[in-house]
Amino acid sequence: MYWFKSKGLSSTSGSVLNSLWVSFFFIATFSAIWRWFGKGDSAVFATMVDSLFSMAKLSVEVMVLLFGTLTLWLGFLKIAEHAGLVKKIAEWLSPLFKRLMPEVPKNHPAVGLMTMNFIANALGLDNAATPIGLKAMRSLQSLNPKSTVASNAQILFLVMNASSLTLLPVSIFMYRAQQGAPDPTLVFLPILLATSASTLAGFLSVAFIQRIKLRDPIVLAWLIGITTFLSILIFFLSSLSALALASFSSLLGNTTLFGLIIIFLLAGILRRVHVYESFIEGAKEGFDVAKNLLPYLVAMLCAVGVLRASGALDVALDMIRYGAESLNWDTRFVDALPTALVKPFSGSAARAMLIDTMTTHGVDSFPSLLAATVQGSTETTFYVLAVYFGAVGIQRARHAVACALFADFVGVLASIAVCYWFFG
Asked: How far apart are CA 377 and CA 124, in angstroms?
């Protein structure tokens, strides 16, 4: 059909994102018709239209925030690039990335940028992670022989981004503290376990499809090393009091963020880089990247807004609750699923769902604890896809969507299992 076709793509091999985008509107339409005739809600279409324009406005508001953030961090990254830091990181990690991403040349700048992005994500430094990730995606795009089709390296990088490995979920602690939780960090270990499971699932799914050789000694050494590090970190953090853990999380996150800036500046000065001119050069690149994102954000956020306003998510929850009851399962987890269902589409919507759950059920209720764990262990997958692929003009995502959603699915299941273990 026509709407599944785009430039250079047929209906059978067309963009997955294109198909999903259209499906959101059709699912919303069927849901709205059901509400109109089945429940007598004649205002549902007006609500959907209002949501359409509200999300278009939100897209512009998000872009205003992104302009400043991207301009700032790409400016500092340009200093690091001119100082040779990115090249040094690439040299250090080349043996590993050569096996995971064989199409990326040895010591390529993309390797260093991807590593910095993973570190920023793990420490919960969202403001730094996004611009670094976009810089890495653009670097990978320079190696892509098909400019509109995602390469294997780009898919692996994006799925690892969308798997949301977060070691210090400071924002979740903040939400719980704002709602009056006596121990805001109560969900720290559940989040750490669930996010580790989602990241592992995302990596293994891509490795299976791309036939990455996991038995390679270097890959095995890194996997064992990371697993050992995480185990030691969990053991150390679990020994801290709630107050000490919150203080450590905040201190480590903020000092790391500002420390990166100082390291970039010192490296630039020592290498006799014109740091101010380099910052301006990178900031201009950030402006160029940001202005190209608006069409993709408008398209995705408007589709998500219509889907939410149609009541399709409510129908999905009712179906899940009915299925759980028919199997004699505990249904407390269903009250936390709104956060899980909207998180792949919209981070702001998921945050709103989390706060609503805490307000409705109590900040330390099982649904609220589970919703907080889901919020910290999953990612806004479609937002990441739209922003990262949109920034470089990728139209065909190949297996990126399936692998990223699989990681989210495992993250949700792991969150449910861990929360029943900790709080059941």
From this structure: 11
Q: How far from the centroid of its chain's Cα atoms is residue 389's Cα?
A: 13
344: enclosing H helix or E strand: none
Tokens 């004649």 locate to: 42
Contact 150, 394 (CB under 8 A): yes
Among 57-66, 206-215, 263-272, 304-313, which is the least confidently predicted range?
Answer: 57-66
Say what angle helices 170-178 and 366-377 make with each other, to 10 degrees. Answer: 150
Residues 6+ apart with CB under 8 A from 307: 24, 25, 27, 28, 313, 345
Q: Report yes or no on whether pTM surpasses 0.85.
A: no
* Residues 337, 265: Cα–Cα separation, whole Å: 44
pLDDT for 262: 92
Taking the C-alpha atoms of residue 292 and residue 309, their distance in angstroms, rounded to an integer, is: 27
Mean pLDDT across 44-63: 84
The structural domains of the chain, with segments of one domain joined by +, span 17-423
Angstrom distances, CA of residue 152 to CA of 46, 140, 325, 396: 42, 10, 42, 12
Strand partners, 149: 396
Q: How many residues are recorded in the chain?
A: 424
Helix (H, G, I), strand (E, B) or coil at 6: strand
What type of residue is 208? F
CA distance 114 to 92: 13
Q: Quick check: helix, strand or coil at residue 9?
A: strand
3-state secondary structure (DSSP) of residue 364: coil
User: Which residues have CB under 8 Å from 189's CB, separation 6+?
Assistant: 234, 237, 238, 422
DSSP character string of 234-263: HHHHHTS-HHHHHHHHHHHHHHHHHHHHHH
Each residue of 132-191: pLDDT tens digit?
788 888 888 888 888 788 888 888 888 888 776 776 676 677 778 877 888 777 787 888
In the predicted structure, residue 266 carries a pLDDT above the cut 90: yes
CA gap 337, 416 in Å, rounded: 10
Instruction: Mark residue 328 as left, alpha or beta (left: phi above 0; alpha: psi -120 to 50; beta: remaining).
Output: left
